[in-house]
Amino acid sequence: MSDLLTHVLSMYVLSTLAVWQIDWFNRRYVGITMLGAVIPDAAKGLLLTGPEFVVFGIRGSWYALQTIGSAVAFIFAGVLLFQADERPAIVGGLSLGVVTHMFLDLLVIRTDGTAPAYLYPLTWARLPSGDIYLSSDIWPSLIIIGITSIIWYVDRR
Amino acid sequence: MNSTLWIRAIVFCLLLSLNGVMMIDYAHHAERQSPYPTAEEVKNDYQTHIGDQVNFWSRVSIVQEDTVGVTYGQPLYIQTSDLSVRSGDWVQVYGELNAKQELVVERIVVSPQSNRLYMIAVSVGGVLLALIMFVRHWKIDTERWIIVPRDP
Fold first, then answer.
1. Domain of A85?
2. A154 lies in some domain
3. Which of A13, A53, B16, B107 suits a disulfide with A111, CB 3.0-4.6 Å?
4. Is A124 a domain residue?
5. B119/A74 Cβ within 8 A
6. Which of A34, A48, A133, A142 to mutate to test the interface with B (most CBs of B within 10 A)?
7. Residue of B nearest to A86 (CA)
8. How far does the CA of residue B55 sit from the closest CA of chain A (Å)?
9. Quick one: angle between helices B113-137 and A4-21, nearest 10?
10. Looking at the predicted structure, is the pLDDT value of residue A52 above 70?
11. pTM for this one?
């Protein structure tokens, strides 16, 4: 996973471009896609306990939260918090954020050349990694900060 | 509290519980699905895993000349000429366990400690930014306990 700022700003850029180009894509959905990009990083709980934890003798793995199955559960839980006529757009916005997040994570360098099982629980298959950057590399965030600044400036005009 | 709100609350809790179930199931099955021995397995019986491939992240414990110390269940040593590695950095390594408690590395990447601190700091900033953008356009309707647009 690349840093969360990169994920969130990527969604700001894509969503703002969508606002410019797509009539029905309202500006209020920009924040929704940005929140969607945060969802898979619920797995960052591993920074507190390590990849696994034990509660009442039951072992759990934070890695489950970076998978498509967990994202779907989070999206459908989250959408229940919104008024009914907004729910289709909310599902779309959150899903867009999740899918973009996972795509960017597939580009992360993995020494064995395979990404984690993001498609769990559908399959344990490990997709090939893109091997472009480390999640702790600084340069991806600097690039997206630059692009975001331009988009933000143009959008304000 | 009306019936619709109760139903939403129950389904919401069930969906979050589903995530808890997946966390347990993932932990239960991940070891069998992984092509590599776990740190626990290496720790418990190193000898049977000599010659096995491993792939893991570890904090660098020591750096002495061309030897880097990492931990995967137990201390392991890597011969590397990468002098940019410092104690406290993180390394991601893929290699083979040998009889001398050394890791014969096929690939190693280094993540400096300062980069990891940067990643955590800007990630917190990313969450705050997403929340700010969200709150600017959405609010809670406290009569119905539902999130609605500020400007419908």
1. 2-149
2. no
3. B107
4. yes
5. no
6. A34
7. B148
8. 7
9. 40
10. yes
11. 0.91
